Amino acid sequence: MDVERAACLNRSCADYAKRGAGNVAPAGRPVRGRQRLRCRTCGTTFVPTTGTFMYRLRISEDAFLEAAMLHYGGYSSRRIAQAVGVSHSTVLRALNRAAEYADQVKLALIRERQVPQDVADRATELICWRAATKAVQRHSGKRRTTRRTRQRDGSLRDVAGAWADEDCDGILVAIYRLREHAHAAH
């Protein structure tokens, strides 16, 4: 872990996003090989992967990028899991995360895997497309239901139910990423 490259992620901190300012130091002992960091200016603690596509994933960055390239190669998620050596659900979670952070994943593929720009563009486009189609498939055939809610004055009112917010957000993020890639290609 390179503490000098870390920066405080607290937007209200005076040293926000300043790398090498000397304000970030290790906080406590490493737990399961992960070292928390603390900003000496504001006292905020965080991990080095906060705000990146690797945040809270129990997979190495190499395995993550390998999974992205195998997905680009047309492998199923179960075959990818077998090749990378992680569970099927971890691969699905990693591919969904890759769709959310497509720009960061594309840069990592180019920088660390020396993947050509057009291949990295196409790989992240396929990952975003997969996330969008999976999210739409989850919602196909589901009906919105009504539910009763209590108003501020104490009366009850019927309100149209909605799908889970995180699923709707996933659909919107994936569609937005697809549109970004389509505009960038032209």
How would you describe what is shown here?
The chain has 186 residues and is an alpha+beta fold. The protein folds into two domains: 3-46, no CATH class; 61-185, no CATH class. It has six helices and five strands. It has helices at 61-72, 77-84, 88-100, 102-113, 117-139, 165-185; strands spanning 24-31, 34-39, 45-46, 146-150, 156-160. The strands form two sheets. Strands 1-2-3 form a three-stranded antiparallel beta sheet, with no helix packed on it. The protein has a two-stranded antiparallel ribbon with strand order 4-5. A hairpin with a 5-residue loop joins strand 4 (146-150) and strand 5 (156-160).
Which descriptors would you attach to this protein?
186 residues, 2 domains, single chain, two-stranded antiparallel sheet, alpha+beta, three-stranded antiparallel beta sheet
Percentage of residues in strands: 5-15%
Number of separate helices: 6
Mean pLDDT metric: 76
| Spatial sequence of strands, sheet with the most strands | 1-2-3
- Helices and strands, in order, run as EEEHHHHHEEH
Distance between the termini: 39 Å
Number of domains: 2
Gyration radius (Cα, Å) is 20 Å
Quaternary state of the chains: single chain
The number of distinct β-strands equals 5
**Share of residues in helices:** 40-55%
The largest pleated sheet is described as:
3 strands, antiparallel
Low-confidence stretches: 161-167
What would you call the shape? globular
